[in-house]
Specification:
The complex is a heterodimer of chains A (about 220) and B (about 130).
Chain A lengths: L5 E6 L3 H12 L4 E7 L2 H11 L3 E5 L7 H10 L5 E6 L4 H9 L4 E4 L3 H13 L3 E3 L2 E3 L2 H12 L11 H11 L4 H8 L3 H15 L4 H10 L10
Parallel strand pairs in A: 1-2, 1-3, 3-4, 4-5
Antiparallel strand pairs in A: 6-7
Helix pairs in contact in A: 2-3, 4-6, 7-9, 7-10, 8-9
Chain B lengths: L9 H10 L4 H25 L4 H18 L2 H15 L6 H22 L12
The chains are: A alpha/beta (about 220), B mainly alpha (about 130).
């Protein structure tokens, strides 16, 4: 039975890495390296001109970084299946890569062991993560989403209104400003502040602002 | 990957040698190129230390990348640490670079043992 050769493009800025990977893959008669790219721009150009079956994509490349190249590949509707090659990857990056259309992730120190198998698995329509084909992508995505979700904000017993007051204090608002914002009296603001100071064990507004920043007490988007 | 770290991961070296069995000269040349490039990168890192963070980050990543693929595990780990520190603007101290240099010497000595002293010099001076 005739077998189809899998055409592969390697994209990595390091020439030794490219040579090493090419040589590894040459040992597999079902795989042929048809191009090599030194950066994200070249990777996209080669993907468009050579239409390889598989693109091996380093995430940290000059010009267009790997994740951005992946985004453009997906937007360009290319049939090429992308496998991310990386030294180390965080779960949120794995999730992002999968969401952007990557079909597999291979760590560079495991390339000799896994790369050929990963390429063949991906060509058979499977996904590849953590050194093996993924049986249930939905479950993997669900797990990754759960693992990468931000930890719930710790509130140290502050009420919703007290948290709002803290947010305004860190913006530099006076008691008068806060009273006006919430339509309450300055006396009430002072009472809120006393409660906040007691609950957090801080002694003044500066300490409060620092505590809020250090303990992620502000709503997302503030204090960045 | 094995739990015990060695300068050169035997599995990676052996599998790569097997994959390149038809091109022994190319295999040796690959490691010679790796060493020459790694020593050069280390010199660039020394010049960039302690505070040219972006340059340190890029070069450390570069060194980590080839070291991972060719099985130089200790160099890869140390370069990765350097990369992470540079990313968060933590100054590079001289000891970190000395540790990479030591690890690279060990890789070179190991390669000289495996490939022959005449092919890969046992010390940096002749690399």
């Amino acid at each position: 039975m005739a077998t189809t050769t899998i055409r592969v493009v390697i994209a990595d800025d390091h020439p030794v890495v490219r040579v090493g990977l090419r040589n590894m893959l040459q040992a597999d008669p079902s795989i042929r390296v048809v191009g090599e790219a030194r950066d994200g721009v070249e990777a996209l150009d080669l993907a468009r001109s050579l239409r390889p079956d598989v693109l091996l994509l380093d995430l940290a490349m000059p010009n267009v970084a790997g994740m951005e190249a992946l985004r453009e590949m997906t937007a360009g509707n290319l049939d090429t299946r992308t496998i991310v090659l990386t030294g180390l990857i965080e779960k949120r990056q794995v999730l992002e890569a999968l969401q952007l259309g990557a079909r597999g992730v291979v760590l560079k120190d495991a390339a000799v062991e896994h790369l050929s198998a990963c390429i063949r698995a991906v060509m058979q329509g499977q996904y590849w993560l953590e050194g093996r084909p993924v049986q249930n992508l939905v479950q993997v995505l669900r797990d990754l989403t759960a693992q990468t979700a931000p930890a719930p904000r710790k509130t140290f017993g502050l009420t919703a209104r007290e948290l709002e007051v803290v947010a305004l204090i860190t913006e530099g608002c006076t008691n008068k400003d806060i009273a006006k914002t919430f339509g309450i009296s300055e006396e009430t603001v002072k009472r809120h502040l006393t409660n906040i100071f007691n609950k957090l064990g801080v002694g003044n507004r500066l300490e409060l602002a620092l505590f809020a920043l250090n303990h992620n007490l502000l709503p997302v988007g503030e204090g960045q | 990957m094995p739990g015990t770290e060695t300068p050169l991961t035997a599995e990676v070296f052996d599998q790569l040698r097997q994959a390149m069995a038809a091109d022994r000269a190319g295999f040796t040349e690959l490691y010679r190129e790796y060493l020459a490039d790694a020593w050069h990168t280390l010199e660039v890192l020394k010049e960039a230390a302690p505070n040219r963070f972006e340059e340190i980050r890029q070069k450390a990543h570069y060194l980590k990348s080839s070291s991972l693929v060719l099985g130089a595990g200790t160099v890869a780990r140390l370069a990765g640490t350097l990369e992470d520190k540079a990313r968060t603007s933590v100054s590079t101290d001289r000891n970190a670079l000395d540790r990479i240099e030591d690890a690279l010497r060990e890789v070179q000595a190991e390669l000289a043992k495996r490939l022959g002293n005449g092919v890969i010099p046992a010390d940096k001076s002749a690399a």
